[in-house]
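Narrative of activities, Objective 1.

The group set out to show that a structural description can be obtained from nothing but a protein's sequence at a throughput compatible with the screening campaign. Below is one input-output pair from the validation batch, recorded exactly as produced.
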Amino acid sequence: MLIEENYFSKENELKYVGSTQIKSFIDCPAKTMAIINQEWSEEKITALMIGSYVDAAMSGTLDIFKAQNPEIFKKDGTLKSEFLQAEKICERIEKDQLFHKYISGNHQTIMTFMFDIINRKWLKYNDEQEVPENHISVKIKIDSFFPDKAIVDLKVVKDFEPIWNSERQRKENFVDYWNYTLQAALYQKGVEVNTGKQLPFFIAAVTKEKEPDLALLSIPQEVMDEKLAVLEEILPRIYYIKHNEIEPFRCENCDYCKSTKVLTKIIDYRNL
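Output recorded for this entry:
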């Protein structure tokens, strides 16, 4: 059974795809498969851990998070300065009634479903049943779920300033830059498959600035419809990669690709 404690286990990372894994496949399939097969591990990034700290605090699992991440403490047992800032973020959230209301739904709600890659259909899936051939099982974990009203995801970000996207050669807001719209589409579809209801998706965003800023953001339905179509194009390829039917593409830019790079020729320096 898929629960909080085994959500990111090797077995379940092989069995399921989730929004984080899908985005990782988009960035570098080779690295993603190396992570899934435990041949490569990403080092813990403090910036991401601050977000996880706030998530845990808001969902009532902070004691578990602290026990699993002793590196957030100094030798004297007090929190490192970065996580004192996380405490400040939590305090700021508690002060805002509307923001707090939106993240006070059912915490860390896990749902599973599946996608038929041949007929391009989304289907119900019990995590104890065998996955049919040509179907890929999907998992989602919702930060704040209101069964009849909304899906809410808590995001802790650096700030609300536009971010330069070197691939697209333009500045983007953090929602587009981090592809959170794809996550929104996946979560909305998962809830719809499981409950029959298409619910709106909101991002409750808070910044890590000295004085944390807050925002409640809606994702328009037309954007989620576009991203759902993208997911339906991506998932068959992910299925074939995970089933060893096609070779995972190497991005040649990430740390994994750099560490496993094998030189085969000399190149003109102007082509570097």
